[in-house]
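Figure 3 (text version): structure tokens given as input.
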């Protein structure tokens, strides 16, 4: 695929998505696309830390929930929703520092387990705070009429921002430093990369995007509760999407978010008691059949047709490493 086509494809896709509402789609389809954009944003955010830096976190629900509640409280107080989204990102980024400062001193499975513990601890705390509404949840009263298309374009804009940020980081010196950390942290440090600082920065950027996604979702839902936005399920969903699409690639994170966004509601509605089992089975199936996800499958098929056996260097930890919690750290 030519370089010009590669550059043009994202803009063509964005233009098409901007024009989609003009086709007169039903409200349910627009809602499904809105949710998909939110998941794509979180998938891209996790990929910055888990895919590029190889730090497998099971705790991104913390940032999603912090962003959701920060935006909900501000919007309920009459603050502009768009200012609230940026504030939600700032709150989540600050939260990432509190989480990252102690946990990034751990490596491999110890880091992964620590993020699970932090996530559950935050959920329990949120469950018992009056400002969050406790277990009863928090209802947002927005002082303006509900316009679904406004929510659609807000979520689309945020997903586009996440793609741009991901591409800029991936092709920057900072992104190369993160990849070096994933490949060999000691060697990266010898070359002048400060692993601790780099991981904290990547964590903060990823948390900010995830927090903004949580804020956008909270405004649309108008009701949130700790067992939803802070749930461990949410962390698993966020991690699963890049695995489906292809860890360490922007395209893989986007594809994983799109597929998950489309099928997630159908699985939950159709199999409410076993949908987590289905997600686990899907993860195992990907590990056994195509560890590099959909992007890896496409590349394998492309090589078969072009006879190009060059190393395509699908970055990021493999899903089996995730299960063992040894994602390059």
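Below: residues designed for each position.
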């Amino acid at each position: 695929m030519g370089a010009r086509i590669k550059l043009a494809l994202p803009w063509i896709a964005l233009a098409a998505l901007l024009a989609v509402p003009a086709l007169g789609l039903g409200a349910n389809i627009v809602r499904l696309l809105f949710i998909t954009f939110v998941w794509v944003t979180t998938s891209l955010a996790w990929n910055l830390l888990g895919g590029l830096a190889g730090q497998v976190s099971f705790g991104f629900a913390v940032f999603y929930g912090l962003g959701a509640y920060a935006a909900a409280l501000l919007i309920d107080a009459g603050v502009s929703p768009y200012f609230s989204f940026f504030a939600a990102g700032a709150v989540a980024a600050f939260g990432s520092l509190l989480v990252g400062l102690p946990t990034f001193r751990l490596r491999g499975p110890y880091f992964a387990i620590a993020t699970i513990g932090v996530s559950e601890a935050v959920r329990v705390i949120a469950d018992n705070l009056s400002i969050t509404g406790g277990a009863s949840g928090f209802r947002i009263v927005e002082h303006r009429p509900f316009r679904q298309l406004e929510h659609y374009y807000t979520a689309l804009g945020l997903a586009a921002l996440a793609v741009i940020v991901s591409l800029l980081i991936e092709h920057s010196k900072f992104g190369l430093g993160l990849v070096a950390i994933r490949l060999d942290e000691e060697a990266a440090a010898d070359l002048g990369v400060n692993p601790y600082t780099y991981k904290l920065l990547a964590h903060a950027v990823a948390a900010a995007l995830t927090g903004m996604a949580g804020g956008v979702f909270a405004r649309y839902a108008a009701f949130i509760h700790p067992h939803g936005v802070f749930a461990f399920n949410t962390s698993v969903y966020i991690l699963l999407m890049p695995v489906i699409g292809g860890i360490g690639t922007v395209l893989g994170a986007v594809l994983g978010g799109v597929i998950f966004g489309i099928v997630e509601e159908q699985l939950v509605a159709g199999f409410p008691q076993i949908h987590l089992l289905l997600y686990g089975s899907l993860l195992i199936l990907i590990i056994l059949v195509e560890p590099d996800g959909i992007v890896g499958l496409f590349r394998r098929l492309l090589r078969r047709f072009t006879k190009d056996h060059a190393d395509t260097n699908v970055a990021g930890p493999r899903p089996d490493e995730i299960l063992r919690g040894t994602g390059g750290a």
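The longest strand covers residues 138-139.
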